[in-house]
Amino acid sequence: MNKEQLVRLLLPLNALVIILFVYINSDMDMMHSEESVNDKYMHFETILSAKGIRSVEDIGSFKKKKSKKFHENDNFSDPLKHLQNDSPKKHKKSQPSESFLSKIKAKSRVSIVNGAEVSKFLGIRIDAKLTETKTKKKSNEAKHHVPRLSDEDFNKFKQLHVRNGEWIRLFPHILKSIESIEALDHFPTFEETTSADHSIVTCRQREVTFGETVKLHIQARDYTNKEKRYGGDYFRVILQRPSFEGDGVSCTITDNTDGTYEAECPLVWTGKARVTVTMVNPSEVTYISMARTNAHSEAYLTMKTSFINSKGETEYAICDMDLSNRFKKSEICDHSHPKTGEPWFCAKPPSGECNPIASQGHRKFEKKILPGDKYFNRKLNSDKEIGKSGFTISIAKITTTSNDDDNSKHVPNQLPCSYNKRELHVPLNPAEATGYIHQGKWKSLECNNTVTDQKWTTCLNRSAIHVMGDSTILAFYRAILIRVHGRPGVDRIISWAKPHEGFSNRTDTILHFTSHGHPFHAEGPPEARMYIYDALDKIVDVGRPTYVVFGLGVHFGRLHPDIYLKRVKYIKRSVLRLRKRVPDVKIFILGLHSNWPWIFQPSSFVPYRHEVLLRNEFRKSENVTFVPFWDMLEILGNKAPHPDGKSFDQELELLFSYMCKN
Questions:
Q1: Burial classification of residue 70, based on how many CB atoms lie within 10 Å of its CB (0-12 exposed, 13-18 middle, 19 or more buried)
Q2: Helix, strand or coil for residue 364?
Q3: CA distances (Å), 536 to each of 129, 222, 502, 532, 547, in order?
Q4: Fewer Cβ within 10 Å of end Cβ, the chain: N or C?
């Protein structure tokens, strides 16, 4: 027998010796404490998992993998491809198989396998610094070891004057929260932030009657179980029916600015109901997100823009709403809007010439560690249900003879939906109920939002429909085109954001789609970023019913809210001009969706803030209909920037109920 054959024979024996060694020493508590050894084991297990080794069989085939740098596709992509299916694909996470060391640990109360010894046996190099790190025990207690925001960074946040701006007047409770946080001698540690595990929800009304409201009291507590003394936490309260999956109604929340909150839920059906309270963001995360979005520049987003110089050459430069902190004035080209002066600047390309923008293409979000990053933790303090909520109440019937459906008819929504705003009421608070889910269907509290397929195709006959906004609004354009049996134009679309033209021979309907202006994170030529107010100013009376549907918000999520507010005000003025030119025009503003991709903003408070600003400007405008989706999608549990098939169907029916009221 040669040396190589002998080594192969002894390797399995070495593994057996280690296993026996573990068994023999399993009771040696005096030499090794269980906690310290388990910590070493857990860390070594983590390293093996990261290397892709889950069993003995993986050892022989182990190869070190080189990290691949992600390269974005420069081709123009369609963000709505996933909407072609009725429901999004659900991918189940594969469960890792039990590893070799896990089997050993399960059979011994104390493991004394040393990381260095096992690594030597397996032939794996482990960094000495990593082996010294201890993996902390999983716990819901206050030991999360999130680094505290430094005093220097906290002072920088204060110097940003987060509470300044026109937007803050609509958020007096947030203003009070900002003042309370900035009055502290240090920014709260993670343990001092609001904890969903420790906050308490109480309700004295367990038996209530249909048509009334149930009132809840929320006491916010931190991870040390200490009561919070200031407000600003962002909660979501939903009243649901366990007997009908998906049925629910949104509840209005009032911030008392002292760490307590009051919630009121309308009772729109009878039987058992379950209250769930979710902490969307603690006040400290909201504060950090406001500081992050208090800038006039998307400093960590690069938009690669192309220009054609005097020699006919294509050259590139980056653009933003403000470049003054990165370039000298002499190094910047001003591409701001010629009429409104809304800012848009580009760095001078290599030629030094300031030529018109040819196209906007590659975008890149720079990954940088920013102050307070670790406070944003979805698993610990964001979108987490309060542990002491989830109780059940009984909703009694109005009379002993009425049944559940009869009680539902008492809700005053039997009038047809109208585009005359004087007949409707849209609350300023997005959490306030504008409708509810009853037996899986959205029932508006404003009007009877039932419309048949036949009505969809007939009410828009011989009409001109203009749709404007981002990729979410593009989904509505495509849905309307399908409902009127239309088809897109023959022009080749090189970018989803470029203007779309559609028509229907069956209903003689003309459709248009345009995206909105800067900032806009999409590829394409300048016409792919036409400002909404410019598009509105181009609409003329063509002798047929004219409809305008628009919405915006997502692409402003990383900027100062006053930039978004100023854009909305310019659009409002253009709407007034349009109504003078086309008196019978019907205008519909689509509310924002309750969930955005986090790439556009650090917390869920940002879209909530935009929704309030948009509602405030348009909810009282005559002959302008605001179509709210916020509470509907909250109840449906939407987690995508574009709603899935079921949610989208509910939104479409509500919109068509307004557009087709006659």
A1: exposed
A2: strand
A3: 62, 49, 18, 6, 11
A4: N
pLDDT digits (tens, 9 = 90+) for 198-207: 999 998 776 7
Q: How far is CA 408 from CA 224, 443, 599, 634, in A?
A: 44, 10, 41, 21
Q: Would you place residue 5 in the very low, low, confident or very high pLDDT band (cuts 50, 70, 90)?
A: low
Q: Which residue bears the tokens 């009657």?
A: 209
What domains can you pick out in the chain, each with its CATH number? 1-61+101-139 (no CATH), 174-290+375-408 (2.60.40.10), 301-365 (no CATH), 421-659 (3.40.50.1110)
- What's the whole-model pTM score? 0.78
Cis before 519 (ω within 30) = yes
Least confident of 129-138, 437-446, 447-456, 541-550: 129-138
Burial label for 193, CB within 10 Å (0-12, 13-18, 19+), is: buried
**Which burial class, exposed, middle or buried, applies to 592 when counting CB atoms under 10 A from its CB (0-12, 13-18, 19+)?**
buried
d(CA 566, CA 48): 54
CA-to-CA separations, 422 to 88, 532, 592, 633, in angstroms, rounded: 38, 25, 22, 25
The residue-averaged pLDDT of 57-81 equals 42
* Alpha carbon distance 181, 174 (integer Å): 10
In 3D space, the residue among 486, 526, 534, 483 whose CA is nearest the CA of residue 506 turns out to be 486
Dihedral Cα 10, 15, 18, 22, nearest 10 deg:
-150
Checking if the pLDDT of 25 tops 80, the result is: no
Question: Residue 181: which of 112, 257, 75, 116 has the closest Cα?
Answer: 257
Residue from 77, 76, 74 nearest 364 by CA: 74
Pairing of strands 260-266, 624-627: unpaired
The tokens describing 409, both together, are: 């008819």
Whole-angstrom distance, CA of residue 241 vs CA of residue 103: 44
pLDDT per position as a tens digit, 601-624: 668 899 999 999 999 998 877 778
